[in-house]
């Protein structure tokens, strides 16, 4: 039986939440924020439960270093901050000391978003091919995992399947989407 986010204890927990913020962009601006809006009920619920919320998503396909500039989630984090009415800390990395430190310093009720998961595809398609090491690493950043990215749930990527396989028994659930 699948667990829903309401089945998990989120209080003071580091909650890894896979969201679908693959929004259309033009000249660095979001042209349709609907996917961000759709994720708000799950995000708000987690925050009401005093979660330390860690959000991540992909944005488009990243095939070259040059793609990074137009595929960053920074503008999405800023839009989410505006919609939530609270700060969303954006970390421009997908792994490493800066990300780990920011997560470890999160307080209950705070939100952090890290960079486009597909930036990992520049190094051997680690995200898209569900790299075991990457899934294990990301799972190690949190206490529980919530998949609120219904539109990508069918993909065997490190940011959904890889984390779910490594987060620990009973510590993953689906969001409201």
Q: Provide mean pLDDT, rounded.
A: 94
Shape: globular
- CATH class call: Alpha Beta
Which topology does CATH recognise?
Answer: Rossmann fold
Question: Strand order of the main beta sheet, please?
Answer: 5-6-4-1-7-8
User: Helix count, per DSSP?
Assistant: 6
Number of domains: 1
Count every beta strand, where a strand is a DSSP E run of 2 or more residues.
8
CATH H level, superfamily name:
Phosphoglycerate kinase, N-terminal domain
How is this structure best summarized?
With 177 residues, this protein is of the alpha/beta class.
Give me some keywords for this one.
alpha/beta; Rossmann fold; 8 strands; 31% helix; Phosphoglycerate_kinase_CS; nucleotide-binding; transferase; EC 2.7.2.3; Phosphoglycerate kinase
3D structure, described in words:
With 177 residues, this protein is α/β, with parallel strands linked by helices. It has a single domain (5-174), classed as Phosphoglycerate kinase, N-terminal domain (Rossmann fold, 3-Layer(aba) Sandwich). It contains six helices and eight strands. The strands form two sheets. Strands 5-6-4-1-7-8 form a six-stranded parallel beta sheet, sandwiched between helices. Helix 1 (34-48) packs across helix 3. The mean pLDDT is 94. GO terms for molecular function: ADP binding; ATP binding; phosphoglycerate kinase activity. It catalyses: (2R)-3-phosphoglycerate + ATP = (2R)-3-phospho-glyceroyl phosphate + ADP. It is found in: Cytoplasm. Pfam families: PGK (PF00162).
């Amino acid at each position: 039986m699948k667990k829903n986010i309401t089945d998990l204890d989120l209080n003071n927990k580091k909650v890894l939440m896979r969201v679908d913020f693959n929004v259309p962009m033009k000249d660095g601006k979001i042209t349709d924020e609907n996917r961000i809006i759709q994720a708000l009920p799950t995000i708000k619920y987690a925050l009401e439960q005093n979660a330390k919320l860690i959000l991540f998503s992909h944005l488009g396909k990243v095939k070259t270093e040059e793609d990074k500039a137009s595929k960053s989630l920074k503008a999405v984090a800023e839009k989410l901050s505006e919609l939530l009415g609270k700060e969303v800390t954006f970390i421009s990395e997908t792994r490493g000391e800066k990300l780990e430190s920011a997560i470890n310093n999160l307080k209950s009720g705070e939100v952090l978003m890290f960079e486009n998961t597909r930036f990992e595809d520049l190094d051997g398609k680690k995200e898209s091919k569900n790299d075991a090491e990457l899934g294990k690493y990301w799972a190690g950043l949190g206490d529980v995992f919530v998949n609120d990215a219904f539109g990508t749930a069918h993909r065997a990527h490190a940011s959904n399947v890889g984390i779910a396989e490594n987060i620990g028994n009973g510590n993953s659930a689906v969001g409201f989407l």
